[in-house]
Amino acid sequence: MGNEQTRGLLIVLSGPSGTGKGTVVRALLDKRADTVLSVSATTRAPREGEIDGVHYHFIDQKTFLRLIEENAFLEYAEYNGNFYGTPKAAAEAQLRAGRNVVLEIEVQGAGQVMNSGADILSIFLAVPSMEELERRLRGRGTEDEATIRSRLALAKEEMKQAFRYQYVVMNDVVEDAVMRIETIIKTENMRYPRMEKTIMEVIESC
Fold first, then answer.
1. What local confidence, expressed as pLDDT, does residue 118 receive?
2. CB of 137 within 8 A of CB of 152?
3. What digits encode the pLDDT tens for the residues 13-45?
4. Which residues touch 143 (CB under 8 Å, ≥6 apart)?
């Protein structure tokens, strides 16, 4: 049998604000040494405690715009006057090394990645009800009433995009959601395109 490194999976994990993407991703990374989080690039200034290359790749706007022209992002968007994007090269290096790369991104960015033609595993993170989503958003205690209402309205529209994803994972209990995602990863790794080399080696060894 050959020892060529199996390419990792590019995993797009998305869903409305309040579904618990960050919590689920942190728990998944804690369980899997073969899985890493994609580090986004941004033009905003670092916040206290943020480390360049760990939390974000901090770059200036001129550089970001040049990278857009060079098609260097899997997806990018502008929020509140700052640009955010997922660099292709860094993700590709991790994938070639056999690591799964998780893109924890909003539905808008996920749509860009899905439209790019990239070979991805797309997962939509959902909640049991809009009431539960509202409870979680209010539980943060960081947003005013108008912002919460706006997020709920946006979430309802984003839920309508779930059909575009390969899998939908319910985040009712974090540990259960992570287990479901791990099951999906195992399933994807058993698809024929990823097992073809192994099958051919078995045939040729006879």
1. 86
2. yes
3. 999 988 999 999 999 999 999 999 999 999 999
4. 137, 151
Q: What would the two tokens of residue 171 be? A: 């985040």
- Given a contact cutoff of 8 angstroms between Cβ atoms, the answer to whether 137 and 148 are in contact is yes
Q: Which of 90, 87, 58, 52 lies closest to 73 in space, CA to CA? A: 87
- Residues 116, 105: Cα–Cα separation, whole Å: 15
Question: For residue 104, what are the β-bridge partners?
Answer: 13
Query: What is the per-residue pLDDT across 83-141, written as a single tens digit (0 to 9) for each?
Result: 999 999 999 999 999 999 999 998 988 999 999 888 999 999 999 999 999 998 888 77
Residue 3 DSSP one-character state: -
Task: Report phi then psi at 162, rounded to 5.
Answer: -60, -30
Please answer whether residues 25 and 104 qualify as being in contact, where contact means their C-beta atoms are separated by less than 8 angstroms: yes
Q: Answer yes or no: are the C-beta atoms of 87 and 72 closer than 8 Å.
A: yes
